[in-house]
Task: structure prediction
Amino acid sequence: MPEPTKSNANNRGASRGPGRSPRRVRPASTDGPEGSLEKSGGSELSEKVVFINRSAKVVKGGRRFSFSALVVAGDKQGHVGVGLGKAVEVSEAIRKGGEMAKQHMVSVSLRDATIPHEIFCHYGGAKVLLRPASPGTGIIAGPKVRAVLESAGIKDVLTKSLGSNNPSNVVKATLAGLRQLRLREDVYRCRGLEIKVRPAPAPAPAAVPAPAPTPAPDLNPNPNPAVADNTPSPAPEAGSAPATA
Result:
């Protein structure tokens, strides 16, 4: 029996009998250590899974489960995005969420390793307060807000989550606050103003030691005027009249 040629082997799925559609070719999977990071402009994108939710649908034969994954992606250089993927399997939901987050990335204005100014933002019932911090403070935030801030490249910030604890609303509120950040240079440029550069302060002159004060002359020979002088007066001479008052 002759062996099937390569052309016949490739077209084997094209004709699957009457009434059957051709077999679909599954795309290459991006899961694993090689597909978890993508390079965009020389920077690696990191993905963080914030929350995985499971939902069930009751059918005649039982229950059907589906999963949704909330994923945050960013390059830690001022670009971050959020995506929500849904699928029957957890791995597929995470993959869809990661792709959606990479497609909807936005740029964030940063000042060194922190944010330029304080911002209060809300989304739905979630409210998030972000404040800049001095170097070495770190990220003071919960797990949901921390995932967004770390993906954006922020290292020093103070945060407080107020209101709802819904992961989706908290993440979107944080992202909305980061999008509202503006640098002073950008604001001046939009208003058509020039940024005045402050001159460096002149160094302070060297301090000249003050001369020591000269002591005042002592006009009172008695060092303690409050104490009366008890020195006995000399006795009067004989034959002299006594002194009258």
